[in-house]
Amino acid sequence: MSAPEMVLKVQDLKKHFPVHKGLLSRVVGHVFAVDGVSFEIRRGETLCLVGESGCGKSTVAKTVMRLQEPTAGTVELNGADITKLDQEELRAHRRQMQIVFQDPYSSLNPRMSAGAIVSEPLTNYGIAAGPELTQRIAQLFERVGLRADAMVKYPHEFSGGQRQRLGIARALAVNPRLIVADEPVSALDVSVQAQVLNLLIDLQEEFQLAYLFVSHDLAVVEHIGHRIAVMYLGRIVELADNADLFGTPLHPYTEALLAAAPLPEPGLKRERIILQGDVPSPMNPPSGCRFHTRCPYALPECKVTDPPLLEVAPGHHVACLRRPVGTDGAPLTRTA
Ligand SMILES: Nc1ncnc2c1ncn2[C@@H]1O[C@H](COP(=O)(O)OP(=O)(O)OP(=O)(O)O)[C@@H](O)[C@H]1O
Ligand SMILES: [Mg+2]
Questions:
Q1: Which of 131, 162, 188, 327 could form a disulfide with 192, with the two C-beta atoms 3.0–4.6 Å apart?
Q2: SS3 call for 218
Q3: How many other CB atoms sit within 10 Å of the CB of residue 222?
Q4: What is the tens place of the pLDDT at every residue in 164-195?
Q5: Of 96, 59, 60, which is closest to residue 77 (Cα–Cα)?
């Protein structure tokens, strides 16, 4: 059987934010928020981006959607590079990719009824009108677990979980192929998180959706991700299938993340990831391997050589000088 179709292919994506200073607003440096990130997502597949606060997860999500313009790199959606398109050309492609945000309260217009919120994209794209539109909205409401008569309510009248269901219904309305979800359950009560995750999993199966799923929570990522990309200071340092990443982590940073967060039932753990040592500034990332300043296994060479992300075992990619091709996950010897 051939692999499912490619939906998203991101190559060497970069987003550098200029830092201005002084009266003349001179550019005095750049925040290297995303600094050379590549990955692919196929139909029916979930790729998770995980990592500490500030590592660039949301910036990847926003530049993929072109809510922010990438500094460099390509983003192919269904085989077409969308980074060079003007706004008019982009519109047709936008329909294929929808975003779900962390906080549905701030991303849903409080002055619009729930029905209007979900019908807006359908009207904008001229997909449905009149009784057909009402029927389509009712179906969407029911599909995401909301009562159709809730259409007349306003966002503040819903619970957090229901508001996120509304955000999902709106994203789903235009039949996208890709949904980018940025911490979609992080603002929800623990008991509600699993319900919303399971809804996303059911919808994926039904519509063969591709998900780019951003989260700092390893338990959530383990629950929903088919493949996981671990980010550190604007780069992917490890990319592997779920079982391989959690079973045989190869990058010292991934190992530290897993050690810091023992994994209970999905959704039970919500704290931020804590690791010893300071995260270096993304304005001035360390030379060589960006993780060497916090790595207990660093060799002198790690200060000078920037390790590429290499496939060292089938489907298992890691950017670490100490993990050559054929690596078997044996423990590294500590140097610090
Ligand atoms: N508009 C902006 N202008 C300047 N710097 C920015 C901008 N947006 C993000 N950054 C910086 O880029 C880096 C990555 O930010 P980003 O929001 O992508 O991180 P994140 O991984 O999503 O973090 P979190 O887990 O806290 O959401 C951070 O250092 C952040 O301060
Ligand atoms: Mg973020």
A1: 188
A2: helix
A3: 19
A4: 999 999 999 999 999 999 999 998 988 899 99
A5: 96
Residue 273 reports pLDDT greater than 70: no
Rounded CA gap, 177 and 77, in Å? 9
12 Cα to the center of ligand 1, angstroms: 18
Inter-residue contact 188 to 196 (CB < 8 Å): yes
Span 204-216, average pLDDT:
97
Q: Best of 13, 27, 57, 60 to mutate for ligand 1, by most ligand atoms within 8 A of CB?
A: 57
Separation of CA 299 and ligand 1 centre (Å):
30
Q: Give nearest CA residue, ligand 1 atom 4.
A: 17
Confidence class for position 270, pLDDT limits 50, 70, 90: very low
The 3-state DSSP class for residue 8 equals: strand
Does ligand 1 have an atom closer than 6 angstroms to the CB of 63? no
Structure-token match 């199966």, residue found: 205
285 lines ligand 1 (CB under 6 A): no
| pLDDT for residue 53 is more than 60 | yes
**Region of poorest pLDDT, from 102-116, 212-226, 245-259, 279-293:** 102-116
Q: Left (φ > 0), alpha (ψ -120 to 50) or beta: where does 12 sit?
A: left
CA of residue 271 to ligand 2 center, whole Å: 14
Q: Which residue's structure tokens are 């449905």?
A: 128
Q: Which helix H or strand E contains 311, and what residues bound it? A: strand 310-313
Contact 251, 51 (CB under 8 A): no
> What is the rounded distance in angstroms from the CA atom of residue 155 to the CA atom of residue 104?
9
